């Protein structure tokens, strides 16, 4: 949340130069407060596990948030009971007339499939375009991040021969950006992906800025200049054992995966794992909700307008 200080206090100009959000008493007294409306488009097969992971990160804020769980269509996923989907999820077409303060689009297990071969590609691009008109800020995770960058900017990911898997050290490229506010000089985040887009490729797009990256894992956190889109190529939402479960699954499938890097104690799967990313993940989602959603979204969502670049 912002700090409220007298408008003439000298500290205000210093804080403004550091891009720290401050509010004077007049603006604070005029604020109206209402719950935030946030949608979660869940593309993962195990819906319940992903729901818990994301909702945990959204819950660490004093803001009241109303959540809509959204599905592409009425097809029943293999790893989630139909009763759960029917009880808790909205089909996208049923909420397409609604506007949201924030939208989160999860990853999907579509690592090697060309985008146009994804069975719901036309639908997902329709939703991405819809979000530009109906959502204040959209956060894309992992596969969805690369898919959205491809759709909006024509940037094609490069596929690695071996999956990038592990918990990697990162640095904040712009420590004064609101999204990285409070990050340590080195912070950690899990990655589990085959796709890569170089940092320089993102930064060559005038509307994009890499805010966090890793020397080993590459670009991690990318934001649009207007705060309307955030792309996260890793998994700050992962539970402590998620990478382990993926590794065991791949071993059983005969894929012969590499051991996730910087994850197991002494690099030994029998010794347990180091959990080094959860505080960062919580802070990242809190910053997104506060600075990219709450502080800029209109009180009346009907007043939400498309980005200026779209007219």
What does this structure look like?
Its EC number is 2.3.1.46. This protein has 311 residues and is an alpha/beta fold. The chain folds into 2 domains: 1-30, no CATH class; 32-244 and 276-302, Rossmann fold (3-Layer(aba) Sandwich). The protein has helices at residues 11-17, 25-30, 47-58, 82-88, 92-95, 121-134, 143-153, 199-203, 242-252, 278-294; strands spanning 3-4, 22-23, 36-41, 65-71, 89-91, 100-105, 135-141, 158-172, 187-196, 208-214, 218-224, 229-232. The protein has a 10-stranded mixed beta sheet with strand order 5-4-3-6-7-12-11-10-8-9. Helix 3 (47-58) links the parallel strand 3 (36-41) and strand 4. The model is unreliable at 1-5 (pLDDT under 50).
Strand coverage percent: 15-25%
Query: Compute the gyration radius: what is it?
Result: 20 Å
User: What's the story with the biggest beta sheet?
Assistant: 10 strands, mixed
**Structure summary, number of beta strands:** 12
Structural category: alpha/beta
**CATH architecture identity of the largest domain:** 3-Layer(aba) Sandwich
Total tally of structural domains: 2
Q: N-to-C SSE series?
A: EHEHEHEHEHEHEHEEHEEEHH
